[in-house]
Description:
The chain is α/β, with parallel strands linked by helices. Helix content is 37%, strand content 22%. The protein contains ten helices and nine strands. The chain has helices spanning 2-13, 20-23, 36-53, 70-75, 89-97, 136-149, 182-191, 204-207, 209-217, 229-240, and strands spanning 60-64, 81-86, 105-109, 123-127, 155-162, 167-171, 174-179, 194-202, 256-264. The strands form two sheets. A seven-stranded mixed beta sheet has the order 3-2-1-4-5-9-8, with helices on both faces. A two-stranded antiparallel ribbon has the order 6-7. The longest helix has 18 residues, at 36-53. The protein is globular and about 50 Å long.
Amino acid sequence: MKKEIQDYWLHQASVQENDEIDALRKVLDPADVKGVKNSYIDGYLKCYLQESLQPEIMDTLLEIGSGIGRLTEYMAQFVHTVYGIDIIDKFIDDCRANVRKRANTIYLKSNELGKLGESSVNKMYIVWVLMYLFDRNEIIETLTNYRKALPHLKTAVVLEQVKSCSQTEYRDGRINCYYRTIEEYTEIFRASGFNIQGYVVMGERHHGPIYKLIHVICNFLPKRLANRAECFFHFDRKLMGDNAGRTGLINSRKPTDIVFRLEVA
Length: 265
C-alpha cells in the first residue's frame, strides 16, 4: 500500500511549475491551471494551521508529510526550528536543494526518523496525510512511533478531510483515499496515546459562496487574481460566520476539513 501512495505523490510531483503559484498544483489541484483556487486553499490551510498550532518563537515543530515544503517553510517564520519528514525521497531532496529554503528548516527522509530523538520538537502537525493511509492500525502504529520518538512532544494538530460516513474514493480505477468520520479519528488518536483537546470544522472550502464560484470558473479567471485569492478566503470566513464551526456542514457527498487539537496523554 505504501508503494501505491508513493506512486501517487510522485505523479503529482511531475506536474510542471513555472512559479510559486504553479507549484501548488503538485499538492492541491493539478487541474487548476490559473492557480486561483489553489491559492485560496493554500491561504485557508495556513490560516487554520497557524491558529490551531499557536506557534511561539522558541517552539520546535515537526511536519509529518512535508511534501514540497510549502507549510514547513511558512511555519518557520514563527518558530525556532521546523523539521519536515516525508516518505517521498524526491520531495526531501528538492526541499534541501531549494535556494529559498529558510535557515531554520531541516528536512528528513523517512529512514532518518531516529534523528528526531536528538531534537527538541514540542509541537507536531499533519495536513491531509492520514486519509491516504487506508489501514487504521498502520495509522495508530505510525502516530505511536512518532510520539515515542519525540520525548519533548506536548501537542499536535491534525488537519484532515472527513465525511458523515466512512467512504473509499477511487480515481482512475484505483483507491485514491479513505474518508473517515470524526468519531473514527477520535478513536485513532486516543489509541495512539493522544487526548483530544477539541476540533474545529473548517467550512469555507466547498461551502463558502466565493469558493463555490471559484471552483466552477477558476480556469476562466485571470491568473493575476491568484495573488489575491487568500483575501477571498477571508471574505468567505466573514460571510459564513459561525457556520464554519458547525458539524451540520459535514455530509456524505463532499469532504469537509476538520482541524483536531491533540495533547500527549
